[in-house]
Amino acid sequence: MITLKKGPIWLKNNKEVLENAVEVSVELGKKNTISYSILMNHNHSNSDQELKLKFDSLTSHDLTYVGVIQTAKASGLKEFPIPYILTNCHNSLCAVGGTLNDDDHLFGLTAAKKYGGIYVPPHQAVIHQYMREVMAGCGKMILGTDSHTRYGALGTMGIGEGGGEIVKQLLSNTYDVSMPKVIAVYLEGKPKLGIGPQDVALAMIGKVFKNGFVKNTILEFVGPGIHNLSIDFRNGIDVMTTETTCLSSIWVTDEKVKEYFETHKRVEEYKQLTPGEMACYDGMVHIELDKVESMIALPFHPSNVYSIKELNENLEKILTETEKEIRQQIDNPEIVINLKDKIVNGKLKVDQAEIAGCAGGTYENIHDAAKILNNHNLTDDYFTLNIYPASTPIYSKLLDDGSAKSLLQSGAIIKTAFCGPCFGAGDIPANQSLSIRHTTRNFPNREGSKPNDNQIAYVALMDAKSIAATALNGGFLTAATDVIKEENDYEYEYDTKPYARVYNGFKNPKEEEVIKLGPNITDWPDMISLQENILLKVASVIKDEVTTTDELIPSGDAASLRSNPKKMSDYTLSRRDPKYVPAAKEIQKLELERQEIVKANKENLSNDLENLTNTITKVMGIEKEGFLEKTGFGSVIYAVKPGDGSAREQAASCQRVLGGVANISKEYATKRYRSNLINWGMIPFTAPEELMNELQRDDYIYIEGIRQEIIEKSSKIKATLIRGDVAKTIELHLGELSKEDEQIILEGSLINFYASQNK
User: Fold this and answer.
1) What is the structure's pLDDT at 404?
2) 1-48+181-292 fold
3) Which residues on neighbouring strands pair with residue 158, listed in sequence order?
4) How sure is the predictor about 448, in pLDDT bands with cuts at 50, 70 and 90?
5) How much is the average pLDDT of 103-131?
6) Mean pLDDT of the region 707-719
7) d(Cα 284, Cα 9) in Å, to the nearest integer?
8) Among 40, 70, 433, 703, which has the minimal tally of Cβ within 10 Å of its Cβ?
């Protein structure tokens, strides 16, 4: 079904796969990829290996744009230089926290007016569907503050990053990255009846996530199988490439892409993209579409993949193994984990179903669900089916063709465009419930439960077709391939009228506009520059194989506080390590006292600061005089592989607000999380995994001359691990940093970096 091949791999005329091509060099072959051409068209450096990219447009949603604009404003923003689209699809319900959700929306609209932005009102569209319909174009690049910024099927290279990278673009600076490897995803054959985009995506994720085969690469979709897929089908696969940990994606374009742009009244955005006659790739993922089965990703990761047939035939065995994996991820021993309770008469019974967001809420997915249910009444037992069209134009078409009425008459609930089911802010299941979802992720607690409060729910990812088949079968897990007997026909007409309320102020900034600041919208606290030496208190040691950004900062219950850095920071690691925040605040309190003493030239220290100073100077054998002037205090987190999942910068900025100075890891799960650390002035150390066994909470790590080490670009840094009165030398590694990265860390944050440039 799916095979992996290491490179170099050659592709001739987008059809024939070759192991070698003696008439063309590898260097020239790599320049024949679609990816190389797009990257070089956006590159502003003199090198084709160290890239400085500028994007065609930018996008953020209402969990991120306030922080981005506040940061850019503090850094000298005058006007949005390129289209910046502010969507409102995460806190769009305005359901909790008083006025603060709609305060953010009002901030967004007034900021769009002041700086010349594009504002999409709540319930109009989820971020990525709007960008597909209105902003994507063949050969373009789009940067977004959401990890699922993927428009490759429309010929657009999308990259999801933290807010700091958007700020750089808003200030007309560049996105700096080494030329990524390019992996071909070679598609051949045609999917069987009943197979949908999520089936193909999950099969691929299951094959490449754990082995890191495509980590930080660009996936270039090629091969004859592409022409057998509709655009909605391609978009559905493409948006899920984020879960492979690749950097971006791009597809060959054809007449179906041209038809898409014609339908959406933007035919001028089409051009044919195809590899050169002989293109060379760094590896290949070969997918035989006709062999893909109906798939399911069990809790708690999109890579925990089985075919529905395999699961149904081995329920007890597979669920027992899944329970063991869940227990390793959930620390609370009081929670009973028993997925096998969901086995009823030998079948898996689910409690809830969701078809939603950028992955599930497309027209064809929902139309298919209506066709499968065909007015059949859903069970009156405990089972719900909630459907969220990804945009109002899609909703409009579902009303026109009768699909919406058919679904409603079956008992499904149709709601407005909203990302809540994907990040724990909508349709949170009951305790111990099993929800099947055509959304993007099923990480622990991402559905909204709180294990610290003895709550747990389980999410499995599936395709909309199999979700509808399961609903048809009374909530018992059913593969769509067992139900669908004929192909569905689609005739889509794009209705532009629902977007009449979208505010488009690009190239028309209104300097006199006053940005509306609700009481929850606050500025970033001051962050000082990196001191000559640093003393790090170990505030958390996480030994999980992977730590997601949802664990670093929860996606659901804290979402309404994204515009208030101090309040938001109190949720850092709250679902994974509740002891982290108190530990970080202890050393932060001493750091603030240290700053005051140095500033005011005071001599009287608190007992805590006096004791810590005496301990460290004695153990290290260094002079007490000058120690506080030269040594900054801060906290550090150790995690084996942090940063999988969302691009949200708060995973790093919340640590920084609490006085975090560094992370230590075996490796970083994604480039975007490492970039977030750097942009918030934190040092992204790596170290051998053995260090995990050495570290304990409340240990200290002292690094002498860290500022000079960074200036001198030292890759290996000598540090001292201190526990009580015992010291041990350890070695930390500092990977490649650009000159700008170094300056941002030295200045203490991206905000400080730009402030220093504007002096």
Assistant:
1) 96
2) Aconitase; Domain 2 (3.40.1060)
3) 142
4) confident
5) 97
6) 94
7) 7
8) 40
Q: What is the DSSP letter of 427?
A: S
Cβ(672)–Cβ(737) below 8 Å = no
In the chain, pLDDT over 90 holds for what percent of residues? 80
For residue 556, the model assigns a pLDDT of 66
CA–CA distance, 160 with 143 (Å, rounded to integer): 6
C-alpha 398: how far from chain center: 29
- Contact yes or no for 203/2 (Cβ under 8 A): yes
Residues 6+ apart with CB under 8 A from 611: none
Distance CA 417, CA 628 (A): 53
Encode 371-404: b = buried (16+ Cβ within 10 Å), e = exposed. bbbeeeebbeeebbbbbbbbbbbbbbbbeebebb
pLDDT tens digits, 382-403? 899 999 999 999 999 999 999 9
Q: How far is CA 13 from the centre of its chain?
A: 34
pLDDT band (50, 70, 90) for residue 485? confident
Rounded Cα distance between 664 and 681, Å, is: 14
For residue 525, how many C-alpha atoms fall within 13 Å in the half-sphere facing its CB? 18
Topology at the third CATH level for domain 533-757 = Aconitase; domain 4 (3.20.19)
Question: Shortest CA distance to 163 belongs to which of 177, 182, 149?
Answer: 149
Going from N- to C-terminal start, the domains of the chain cover: 1-48+181-292, 55-173, 295-497, 533-757
List all residues 6 or more positions away from 534 whose beta carbon is below 8 Å from its beta carbon: 631, 632, 633, 634, 661, 662, 702, 703, 706
CA–CA dist 543, 689 (Å, integer): 9
What integer best gives the mean pLDDT of the chain?
Answer: 94
| Biggest alpha carbon–alpha carbon distance for the chain | 83
> Can you tell me the distance from the alpha carbon of 597 to that of 608, in angstroms, rounded to the nearest whole number?
14
Question: Residue 475 to residues 299, 389, 484: CA-CA distances in angstroms?
Answer: 18, 22, 17
Mean pLDDT of 172-199: 97
pLDDT for 682 equals 97
CATH for 295-497, options being 3.30.70.1520, 3.40.50.1980, 3.30.499.10, 3.40.190.10: 3.30.499.10
Answer yes or no: pTM beyond 0.90. yes
Fold match between domain 55-173 and domain 295-497: yes
How many Cα atoms occupy the beta-carbon half-sphere of 315 within 13 Å? 15
Q: d(Cα 388, Cα 356) in Å, to the nearest integer?
A: 5
Q: In 457-580, at which residue ranges do the beta strands (DSSP E only) sit?
A: 458-462, 503-504, 533-542, 547-548
Residue whose tokens read 């007309």: 172
Quick one: pLDDT band at residue 699, thresholds 50, 70, 90? very high
Residues 6+ positions from 493 with CB-CB distance below 8 Å: 263, 397, 400
- Model confidence pLDDT, tens digit, residues 533-561: 999 999 999 998 889 888 898 876 677 77
pLDDT band, residue 366 (cuts 50/70/90): very high
CB atoms near residue 68 (< 10 Å): 25
Q: Which CATH superfamily is domain 55-173 in?
A: Aconitase, domain 3 (3.30.499.10)
Q: Considering Cα of 598, then 599, then 605, then 607, what sign does the dihedral take?
A: negative
Q: Does pLDDT of 427 surpass 70?
A: yes
Q: How far apart are CA 566 and CA 272, in angstroms?
A: 48
Judged against a pLDDT cut of 90, whether residue 149 lies above it is answered with yes
User: What is the predicted pLDDT for the residue at 434?
Assistant: 96
- Residue 649 near residue 164, CB atoms below 8 Å: yes
Measured between alpha carbons, how far is 536 from 591 in angstroms, rounded to an integer?
A: 11
Distance (Å, rounded) from C-alpha 644 to C-alpha 422?
A: 15
pLDDT digits (tens, 9 = 90+) for 281-317: 999 999 999 999 999 999 999 999 999 999 999 999 9
Distance CA 647, CA 650 (A): 9
